[in-house]
Amino acid sequence: ARSFALRVEQAGMFGTNTLDEVRTMRSMRAAGFPVANIRFVEFDPAVIGTPFFVMDWVEGSSGPPNDAALRDYVTKLHELHQIDWRKKEIPFARIPSVPVDAVHQQVDRWMDVHRWGRVLPEPLLEEAATWLKRNAPDDLHLTLVHGDPGPLNFIHKGDEVQAFTDWEFSHIGDPNEDWLFLGGMRGRGVMEPPQWREYIADVTGHVITKETWAYWDVFNQFKGACANTSALRIFITGANPAPNMAAIGTALKLSMVQHLSTIIGMSYAREGE
What we know:
Blueprint: E1 4-8, H1 18-30, E2 38-42, E3 52-56, H2 67-82, H3 85-88, H4 99-117, H5 123-134, E4 143-145, E5 154-157, E6 160-164, E7 171-173, H6 175-185, H7 193-204, H8 210-236, H9 243-272
Antiparallel strand pairs: 1-3, 2-3, 4-7, 5-6
Helix pairs in contact: 4-5, 4-8, 5-8, 5-9, 6-7, 6-8, 8-9
């Protein structure tokens, strides 16, 4: 007997859609990267109430990895950033021409998600969007970015990665977006951000300065706050009335806004010295 996994679109949650995720996953699998094989895609919401796709079941665990599996994951994430994405012809909707364009595209992308989900304008997030564009680092690079890396966003068996999952945020951008999403947000249950910074350098040789770390920390808090705003609209409209949707769209989002506001405020204070 064969086993399969079903992944459904979540009523616009996080501003994602099935088509983009399927295209990326199929391209990455064709490139030899560890990704589940997609068997079937259905875009018509009339079938089960929402678009979905069916994948081959990948044996292993998506729970907390052991030390060797985590190291393998970080190594493979670094390898993802080294892929010649231009030759792979991944059909992304947005392809930046120069590195700074990637930052502007992603800031605009997440502001669009925020504006779709919000109840009222939020000046702090509007200010953060402007700050991110004005303060983009000079040493940006264009690579394939997973967009949602974390210790629980891959399947592992023993000491090895079997498949990367959760490709809905993938795009062309700077690799430090991934490293800060992993080390500054998703991976806090494994180790604290300063330890992650050292670990990434030790495993991959990729060194991130404190200034670059702070910038991408703001970026990912902004990205998270904007993405989480979508949960509020989904809750209010009744598309998903689960209480955790309300919590994600209010309290969790607010904590991210407070975090990024603190970092931006400190940068303004330094400019005024």
